Give the backbone structure.
Amino acid sequence: MSAEFKIGVLGAGTVGSAFAGLLQERASEVQSLTGRTPVLCGVLTRDKGSFPEILAEAELIVELIGGIEPAREYVLRSLTAGKHVVSANKQLLSQHGEELFEAASEHGAQLRYEAAVAGVVPVIRVLSESLAATRIERIHGIVNGTTNFILTEMERGASYEQALAEAQRQGYAEADPSDDVSGRDAAAKMAILARLAFGAPVRLDQVPYEGIEHLQSDDLRYARELGLGLKLIGTAERLNGGLSVRVHPAFLYAGHPLASVSGPFNAVTVESDAITEITMSGPGAGGVQTASAVLGDLVSVMLTPAAKIPPATSFELLGDVRSAFYIHMEVADRPGVLGTVAHLLGDVGASIKSVAQWGLGDNARLVMVIHPLEESRLRSALARIAELDFLHSTPRAIRVIEEEFV
Ligand SMILES: NC(=O)c1ccc[n+]([C@@H]2O[C@H](COP(=O)([O-])OP(=O)(O)OC[C@H]3O[C@@H](n4cnc5c(N)ncnc54)[C@H](OP(=O)(O)O)[C@@H]3O)[C@@H](O)[C@H]2O)c1
């Protein structure tokens, strides 16, 4: 084995250029850890470098192009040639993971992708190594820093539009933020985590997601009175013999470990009977931070064989999931309103946990949290409530995660 370890990098954008710099800066540490000196043998961009030449020379390919093609083709060709691959590409892993895992296993190559989920937070390594033999029951994650930054700004009183503009000004949101604010980016990451935690080859197109575009700062303000804070939460959990993987805004009580995660940070909570709960948090993006996760994968490849990806198991994805809900209504301020609402909720089996009301002249704002029930049942009750003559706005419902670990 040569004392040099040759690395080809595909992409020289935010992460690719940060990685090239970090590799040069940390080469002697990598050498002392692994006994081999990492050497950059080629860089590919749209108008620079040749993939076949880089592939021929490199022992490991770092894919930092993003998107599906040509990243998929390059990663597959690298693995098929027996070259190790490190990638930060959540789209690719969440849509073509099985094909890539099979190619890696068939050709004895490693595929590592720590930076694809939660940036520098080592959640992939923890799930695939530390907790590999643990029966995991549930994962909750704040896996998109852009939306967490926006929600933090909205909690401080900004409107959605103001918070998004601030995120763009500070470089946390792209000019086109739709993948982030729609929840699609988080859904891709939850599909990857579900594969690792449950062996279920969930694809991005199987993960229902709801974003934050429709949220109003009012909801955040009123919910605070009930002790709740709002986050965009990805969930992957075992439920009634099946699985539910989904992304949606959710209120959390202060005792939940994700409740205190603010700004552009990411965090992932893993729950299991054996370990109760662990939470990992840290920066979810940024060139240098992501490059540092990529460098960690590089050192892992050089030091150890990768843990085997658990075999794909069959699974049933559940749709209509039970949840507690926060409900917001604007109503006429007159006797009997709360009783009528409670009655219609009771008809579908919903019971009220807490309620708060604010008078607004002739109107009132009624905000409540109800105990868990299936979403379909809540929606049917809300449709009936929306028809009542004292309703002045369409009722809004947002899920509430009731667990607290205190
Ligand atoms: N940015 C972050 O904070 C972050 C965080 C976590 C994960 N990631 C992931 O890291 C990966 C890279 O993200 P990034 O932000 O660094 O992207 P980026 O700044 O847009 O850079 C992409 C690079 O890929 C090159 N490229 C694009 N199409 C190509 C093609 N057809 N052939 C060869 N090269 C091509 C571009 O070349 P040109 O220079 O010629 O345009 C550019 O150098 C993505 O998978 C992303 O999801 C990023």
In short: The mean pLDDT is 95. The longest strand covers residues 228-239. Residues 129-283 form a domain with the Dihydrodipicolinate Reductase; domain 2 fold (CATH 3.30.360.10).
